[in-house]
Amino acid sequence: MNDIPSYSLKQLAEQFSLEWRGDPEVQLSGIAPIEKAEAHHISFLENSRYQKYLSETRAGVVVLPRVLAEECRTNCLITDTPYLTYAKIAGLFLSRDLPSVGIHPTAIVDPSAHISSSVALGPYVVIGPNVHLDDHVIIGAGSYIGAGTHIAEKTCLWPHVSVYHDTEIGCSCEIKSGAVLGGDGFGFAPTPSGWHKIPQLGRVIIGDRVSIGANTTIDRGSTQDTVIATGVIIDNQVQIAHNVSIGENTAIAGCVGIAGSTHIGKNCQIGGGAGIGGHLVITDNVAIAAMSGITKSIREPGQYIGRGGMGVDTLKTWLKLAAKLRGIDKILARIKKLEE
Question: Is 18 inside any structural domain?
Answer without folding.
Answer: yes
